């Protein structure tokens, strides 16, 4: 059987552009015993991909040149020689940017119940995105009703989940985002109590202080850099900060105000979080997320691209921040 | 009855000098019901006092001008009209730099068993110092046998306890200190596996890497600043850092390398620790520390000054780093 796949053709320059990928066709071998064939239905496009295609030190090795682009996907098993996986089952896993994946089960994150939600939702609200928000917020941030929770990239796939989970727990939620369109979605779609457009606000610290009259108890950070400096300065005693992304550390912001004194005086915690340490517990996150999803407390938008060849375009959009919601590719 | 006390006469300039204190005499009133009189036997001199005498924002209000200097002390109850405290009992508490203290019990941290150890030891190994090391290391750092633990101000009152507790738990312990004399004590008295004099070493990062071939799992930090930058750069995945002091953040080092990327990539934790949040659990720390002390696993040195008027001199020595061991005043 023939497979179409997107492989990494070269390392990116400063910005990731679509031309670092190359579409290739290959002839798949017959299945061995213990293998099954997945026809991918939706592919994921994630901010982490920026790191995966560069060869800077990271939490996992970069995608090798010539290798299929690493990606989560939801697919349907179309043939099986594996006792644990049957034809017709839906699976969520690390299947890559390709039409077909031969799996031995080791790259499967979970079997999907197609009655729970539209299939694409398993790639975000009930997938890695939702699990990132769930574990990163509830286990490190541990927000309590009445506390103030600040989220950077508040309209993003992860950020919007964080804001909504915190809201569902009775917190005051403040979002920081980078466009008026996203700010509007934060308020009207994701239910933040207040939102700040850091690009157009006069003084982030002043506006934050205004919207957080009781200080900040929990900070779910996807950016670091000057935005986070402003948030950290308003920490309450016992504040908890999840470091989930550092996209705001540009070459001009490698240095910044030291946080140690604030952490000491506020007895605050700053902790890095990487979802890959926790994917083996995905079912636990889904257990927490599904009731929220089913009671309509987890709103989302999807930006769906059609066709494998559109995946790099989707990634460009995501990394440029022009996307509107979770970026997906429908095959 | 007459009491001699040291009051804060003025705020310090850049450095804390002995002349910011003034010796005063006062006539004490008779005890009310519910009060008792403590004759202080040993007064403590602590690094935190630098913060207490300045009016910069801090975790507790500064000592007011004209007020007796805040301090822990061990004393003997010499008169009591309090049902819970009897004449002859030894108590450890926040009794201030003075000969006599009228207490209602609210400033007592614990009653001391004089058979456990020499009385002065209750001011450090079995007092705030030991509790700082105990809770800050075991609860935030949570060191496991075989892990590498780095301690800054490794020969200090707290640092030396941290190193020894970690050693007793089977860790590899690396100390960072600022003089050859202290380095020698780290090795021969406190049992560190290796020690670095940051003032004379060629390149702290290089030497640290050499002494920590398996990276760094736990960092108990009393300084922040460039020393900590070097330590953080060697963090292992899952590293835990206790921020217990920030004496290395001088005006020239207010900014430094951002830690967020390291925390993220290493899924590491940085958490501020202040012993005053935990003093109500002092008995729990003593329960952990006493068996180590009694089996001679907690070595210490004392630098004892004689007479109330010498307390400011002791503080000068401590803040200049010229002290040899825990600074105490014997009355």
TrEMBL record, chains A, B:
PANTHER family: PROSTAGLANDIN REDUCTASE, PROSTAGLANDIN REDUCTASE 1. Residues 54-329 form the Enoyl reductase (ER) domain. Its EC number is 1.-.-.-. CDD domains: PGDH. The keyword Oxidoreductase applies. This is NADP-dependent oxidoreductase. Keywords: Oxidoreductase. It comes from the Bacteria. GO terms for molecular function: oxidoreductase activity. It is an enzyme of class 1 (oxidoreductase). Signal peptide: none annotated. Gene3D superfamilies: Medium-chain alcohol dehydrogenases, catalytic domain, NAD(P)-binding Rossmann-like Domain. InterPro entries: ADH-like_C, ADH_N_2, ER, GroES-like_sf, MDR_fam, NAD(P)-bd_dom_sf.
């Amino acid at each position: 059987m023939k497979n179409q796949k997107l492989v990494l053709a070269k390392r990116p320059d400063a910005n990731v552009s679509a031309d670092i990928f190359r579409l290739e066709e290959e002839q798949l071998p017959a299945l061995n015993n213990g293998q099954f064939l997945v026809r991918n239905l939706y592919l994921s496009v994630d901010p982490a991909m920026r790191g995966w295609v560069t060869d800077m030190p990271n939490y996992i090795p970069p995608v090798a040149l010539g290798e299929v682009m690493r990606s989560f996907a939801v697919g349907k098993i179309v043939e099986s020689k594996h006792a644990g996986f049957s034809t017709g089952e839906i699976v969520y896993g690390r299947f890559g940017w390709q039409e077909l994946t031969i799996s031995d089960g080791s790259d499967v994150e979970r079997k999907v119940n197609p009655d729970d939600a539209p299939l694409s939702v398993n790639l975000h609200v009930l997938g890695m995105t939702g699990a990132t928000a769930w574990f990163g917020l509830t286990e490190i941030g541990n927000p309590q009703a009445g506390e103030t929770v600040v989220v950077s990239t508040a309209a993003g796939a992860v950020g919007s989940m964080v804001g909504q989970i915190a809201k569902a727990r009775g917190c005051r939620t403040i979002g920081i985002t980078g466009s008026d369109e996203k700010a509007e979605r934060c308020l009207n779609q994701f239910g933040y109590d207040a939102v700040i457009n850091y690009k157009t606000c006069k003084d982030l610290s002043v506006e934050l202080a205004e919207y957080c009259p009781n200080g900040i108890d929990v900070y779910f950070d996807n950016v670091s850099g000057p935005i986070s400096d402003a948030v950290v300065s308003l920490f309450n005693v016992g504040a908890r900060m999840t470091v989930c992304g550092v996209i705001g550390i540009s070459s001009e912001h490698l240095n910044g105000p030291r946080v140690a004194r604030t952490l000491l005086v506020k007895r605050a915690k700053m902790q890095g979080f990487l979802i890959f340490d926790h994917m083996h517990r995905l079912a636990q996150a889904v257990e927490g997320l599904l009731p929220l999803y089913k009671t309509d407390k987890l709103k989302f938008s999807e930006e769906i691209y059609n066709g494998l060849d559109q995946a790099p375009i989707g990634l460009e959009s995501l990394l440029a921040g022009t996307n509107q919601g979770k970026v997906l590719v429908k095959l």
